[in-house]
Amino acid sequence: MxxxxxxxxRRVLTEAERLYYDPSVVQGELKALEEQLTSGRIAEDExxxxxxxLLERLAGxxxxxxxxxxx
Length: 71
Hints:
The protein is mostly helical. Helix content is 83%, strand content 0%. The protein is built from three helices and no strands. α2 (23-38) runs antiparallel to α3. 0% of the residues are buried.
């Protein structure tokens, strides 16, 4: 039973990493953020802050994929 729980936890972690390190997810979030700005749902300072966070995440994804031999 313990082995099964460990296997499940590894699978969950692998899937979470896949989603977190998927550049298309971050690009989608950037697009949605821009739409929020242009529609007036968020202010420019909020946009700038969140955009910086997403761009840092995208840079981290590049480093992670380079370090893991992924393309």
